[in-house]
Amino acid sequence: MLIKQGQVDALPWRVYDTRDAMGAAAAAYTEGLLLAMQEVQAEIRMIFAAAPSQNEMLAHLAASREIDWGRITAFHMDEYVGLAPDAPQGFGNFLRDRLFSKVPFRQVHYLKDPVAYAKLLQEAPVDICCLGIGENGHIAFNDPGVADFHDPETVKVVALDDVCRQQQVNDGCFATLSDVPTHAMTLTIPTLRACHFLVCTVPSATKRDAVRRLLYEAEISEKLPASTLRRHANAILFLEKNSYPEG
Hints:
Elements: E1 2-8, E2 11-16, H1 19-38, E3 44-48, H2 55-62, E4 72-76, E5 78-80, H3 91-100, E6 107-108, H4 114-122, E7 128-131, E8 155-159, H5 162-170, E9 183-187, H6 189-193, E10 197-202, H7 208-217, E11 235-240
Parallel strand pairs: 2-11, 3-4, 3-7, 4-6, 7-10, 10-11
Antiparallel strand pairs: 1-2, 5-9, 8-9
Helix pairs in contact: 1-2
């Protein structure tokens, strides 16, 4: 159930009473975009985040019986450096388990080489990006220390800050901080901003401070990378009661 909504700058936001309701709403919104695109486009290109925050949205989206998945080419937005290829924490593996293996995509591209991946992304515009926000306000793996709103790169390798790495432990993806890789490949902020639509889904009390800063406190700057969403013409933020800071 929708319990609150508003808008900051160009960014509308909606709060739901449960994580499942939030995920269902984000999936329904994404499905609506896809159905409209199917009427006018032969092919659709999408980017997906891989994180527990996306679980409910991905589950509801995969259950759609209206989407023509055979027209959709999928990418994911970041990947660790140095993990074993079959590691369950790998973001490509995460998305394969929860989405890519469940519906018949036209094509799925996995992030293994930044240069090759950049060329694939540059072949045509990306229609929709489904993303989240990190505890430090990152989008993809653009942490505050490496985020660049004018980044010339499409994909790059970055060092992960300690807050970002600890989040992976908080999310239950790794047992200890020392298990979390120190570097990752990520799509840059201009690459994400170039997507026609951004659907951002953010549950959990651990994200409340980042959401508070995004909606009520922070200036639009690389200090809070997610603040760039407030300037995007077609971004939307889905929250649940535990991630919403009550102003």
